[in-house]
Amino acid sequence: MTQINVRVDGSSYTDDVEPRTLLVHYLREQLGKVGTVVGCDTSNCGACTVHLDGQAVKSCTVFAVQADGCQVTTIEGVATGEGESATLHPVQRAFHEMHGLQCGFCTPGMIMASIDLLKENPDPSDEEVREGIEGNLCRCTGYQNIVRAVRQAAAEMSGKAADDPQAQPAAVDTAAADHVAAQA
Amino acid sequence: MIPAPFAYTRPSTIEEALQAIADGGEDVKVLAGGQSLIPVMRLRLAAPETLVDLTRVAELRGVREDGDMLVIGAMTTHADVLTDPLLAQYGQLIVQATETVADRQVRRRGTFGGALAHADPAGDLPAVALALDAEFVLAGPGGRRTVPATDFFVDYLTTALDEGELLVEIRVPKLGEGWGVRYEKFNRVAQAWSIVAVAAAVRREDGRIAEARIGLTNMGPTPLRASATEAALVGVDVSMETVTAAAAQAAEGTSPSNDLNAQADYRQHLAQVLTRRAVAAAVGL
Q1: Among residues A100, B36, B210, B222, which one has the fewest Cβ atoms lying within 10 Å of its Cβ?
Q2: Last residue of a domain, one of B173, B189, B213
Q3: A2-76: CATH number
């Protein structure tokens, strides 16, 4: 066991970990930060993305001991305030408003990668968003509303009014066949 | 999956790192950015006894000038490479190839030296290092030695690094006035490895090609130079015809693999097409 000191979402922790413990497992199992999820076994999907000293990394591909002395921000630490009075981060809000998710499993990683992208490029084009989040896989949405959400968040964060008519969720989000839709 | 147990050390100097490697037992692995090693350990394809983590060895990270060479510390991350002013000025081929490595998060952790020491033939940086005739500075218990790129890449995932040695820095020539570069990569989906890629650096002089350096990614168990194409380009006028004719020889002497992505003959075809595109772009056609 190795002792580590980390600051996660604003709180300090001192814990003993096995060197082989992955950061994502430490966050979920020892700290209960289950907002960060594990989506694959191959470092491809990006669902486990967190910020390590302010930079987006895949927490399944970092050992917890490597975070010793570092600051970690997870999806649970990006909103301000607590409970009922919490204010979502603009990127969280944009994913909600633009319906940038379906099952939601990739969303924590998508949001953490997007926040990192917008810090570096505050006004990305559609193409730059797609390249910026290439390390995050979504198997539901086809990415259309995710890209809209990131651009909506960019507009909001830079103080521009989001009056772009494009900045709407896609008109048809479900591909339900007519006979199924009629049952609704 | 969770990796097998290992002993972990985190040195803060090269001296301490070499000592940790020497003391680490039979099966020591050096952990650079970990973006290839940790996935391999998670799949239990590797289960080292000791891991020597270099992430806190500050002297291994950064880029500096040394006359007409650039010296890149082995632990310089891909993200560092993309924002470094010296590389922006003199190392555009490295920058272009690094932009295509994996994805944003992986580039934050993954390192230049780690990618070279891993020596994956589908990795983007070995072919670039070979095309640039990079020099690899290795530190060991007996001191330092410098190995040219042609000797560094020995075989599939195998380099000239001996047991107990550490890659500390990579020296590449500055490419300034007159040089044009391009990294052309072919893959199918985001963050995928290269099926084939071509790194080209070409120097023009008075409308002719004075010098050409072309590295091939994933055309054999090690990165390769397209020597026949390089020779054919020297002294020719810059035109699409001369570039196309020279690029037709790009696959000479290569022995690419067959795998799920491509057959060998398709890879050889790709090498010619990508070499033509890379050289044309490098000379501004």
Answers
A1: B210
A2: B173
A3: 3.10.20.30
Return the domain boundaries, chain A.
Answer: 2-76, 85-157
| Neighbour tally for A29: CB within 10 Å | 12
End-to-end CA distance of chain A: 56
A110–chain B Cβ distance below 8 A for any pair:
no
Do the strands B143-148 and B153-155 form a parallel or antiparallel pair, or are they unpaired?
Answer: unpaired
Residues of A within 8 A of B7 (CB-CB) are 19
| % of residues, chain A, pLDDT over 70 | 87
pLDDT below 50 — which residues of chain B?
none
- Coil, helix or strand at residue A37: coil
B80 phi-psi bin (left φ>0, alpha ψ -120 to 50, beta other): alpha
* pLDDT bracket for residue A62 (50, 70, 90): very high
Q: Closest to B35 (Cβ–Cβ): which among A43, A46, A134?
A: A43
Query: B55: which chain A residues are within 8 Å (Cβ-Cβ)?
Result: 66
SS3 state of residue B95: helix
**Which amino acid, B204?**
R
Overall number of domains in chain B: 3
Res A168: pLDDT: 64
Confidence of residue A164 (pLDDT cuts 50, 70, 90): low
pTM value is 0.93
Q: Which residues does residue B204 pair with via DSSP β-bridges, in sequence order?
A: B209
Q: Which CATH class is domain A85-157?
A: mainly alpha
Say whether A22 and B42 touch across the interface (CB within 8 A): yes
Q: Which amino acid does the sequence have at B162? A: D
Instruction: Determine, for residues B1 and A116 on separate chains, whether the beta-carbon distance falls below 8 Å.
Output: no
pLDDT tens-digit readout, B190-228:
888 999 999 999 999 999 999 999 999 999 999 999 999
Is there a contact between A46 and B105 if contact means CB atoms under 8 Å apart?
Answer: yes
Residue A81's pLDDT is 86
